[in-house]
Amino acid sequence: MIEVQRDGAVQVVRLNRPSKKNALTGEMYEALAGALEAGNTDEGIRAHLLLGVPGAFTSGNDIGDFLGFAMSGGGMQDAPVVRFLRALAQCDKPMVAGVDGLAIGVGTTLLFHCDMVFASPRAVFRTPFLDLGLVPEAGASLLAPRAMGHARAFELLCLGEPFDSVQAKAAGFVNHIVSEEELEPRALAAAQAIAAKPAEAMRLSRALLVGDRTELRARMEEEIRLFSERLASDEARAAFTAFMDRARPAG
Ligand code: COA
53: helix, coil or strand? Predict the structure, then answer.
C-alpha cells in the first residue's frame, strides 16, 4: 500500500490503496514515517517524492481507524499517525509532492511541509476536520495561516471549503498546475533537480527557509492532544459512524 523506490538520489514514495481512494491506515503511516526518517540518516537520499494514484493522492485518514480510536477510548499519542506527523516536522530532506485528484485531510495538511507541490487541474484540497468533530493537525493551524493568511486558512481548515488547484496555487501551497499526464514526470524532474544541487548547501539553505521548528513542534503536540480528545467526542463518533454506515453496501 506504500511503495518506496529509489530513482537515483530521489526516494519515490507512492501511496497505493486505490480501492479506498488511498485512505491511510496505521500500517501505511508506519511505512511513510519510516521512509521519511530513513532520509534523515541516509546520505544517498537527497529528496523525497510523494505520489498517489490516478485521481487520488489520498482521501485522508482511514475513517474506520478513527472509529477504532473513538471506541477504544485510548489516546493516540503512540499511534502510527503521530509518528508520521512528527517525521514530517523533523524531515531534513526536501520533499516534493505530485497531487492528482483527491487530497483530503492529511493529504492537504502534509503539503504544508513540502518544498514543492505539483497539482493536476482536477486536484481538490479539502480538510473536513470540523465536520468530523475534529481539529486541524500536522501543524496546519500554524503553517496554513502563515502561507495564505488567516481568512483563507479559516475557510480551508475551519469551514472545510474545497480548494481547487488554482485556489491552492493562489494560496501559495501549490507551485505548478500541470496536466495529469505531465504530473509525475514534472514532479520527478523537480526532485531530481533538487537532488543534483550541492547536498550540504541544500541542507543548510532548506534549514534556513524552514527556520526554527520549536514552535511548529509545540503546536503539533497541542493539536495531537486536542485531536486525541476530540476523537472520543460524541460529535466525532456520530460523524465516523455516519460515514461507515454510508459506505456499507445496502442489504
Ligand atoms: N476512510 C475509509 N474509507 C474511505 C475513505 C476514508 N477516509 N475515503 C474513501 N473510503 C472508501 C469508501 O468507503 C469506499 O469504500 P467501499 O468501496 O468499500 O464502499 C471507497 O473508499 C471509495 O470511496 P467512495 O466514497 O465510494 O468514492 P467517492 O468518489 O464517491 O468519494 C471521497 C470519495 C473521498 C470524497 C469520500 O469517500 C469521502 O468523503 N471520504 C472521507 C474523506 C474524509 O473525511 N477523510 C478524513 C479527513 S480528516
Answer: strand
Q: What is the whole-number distance in angstroms between the Cα of residue 21 and the centre of ligand 1?
A: 6
Q: Which domain holds residue 128?
A: 2-179
Domain-located, residue 7: yes
| CA–centroid distance, residue 187 to ligand 1 (Å) | 26
Identify whether 192 is part of a domain: no
Can you give the pTM of this predicted structure? 0.96
Test site for ligand 1: of 17, 59, 67, most ligand atoms within 8 A of the Cβ: 59
Cβ–Cβ < 8 Å for 82, 44:
no
pLDDT, tens digit, 9 for 90 and up, residues 16-50:
999 999 999 999 999 999 999 999 999 999 999 99
Is residue 123 within 8 Å of 171, Cβ to Cβ? Answer: no
> How many domains are contained in the chain?
1
Residue 44 burial class via C-beta count within 10 angstroms: exposed 0-12, middle 13-18, buried 19 and up: exposed
Tell me if 239 CB under 6 Å of ligand 1: no
Residue range 232-247: mean pLDDT, rounded: 89
From atom 45 of ligand 1, which residue's Cα is the shortest distance away?
Answer: 60
**What does the pLDDT look like over 183-211, one tens digit per residue?**
999 999 999 999 999 999 999 999 999 99
Residue 200 maps to a domain: no
Nearest CA to ligand 1 atom 2: 62
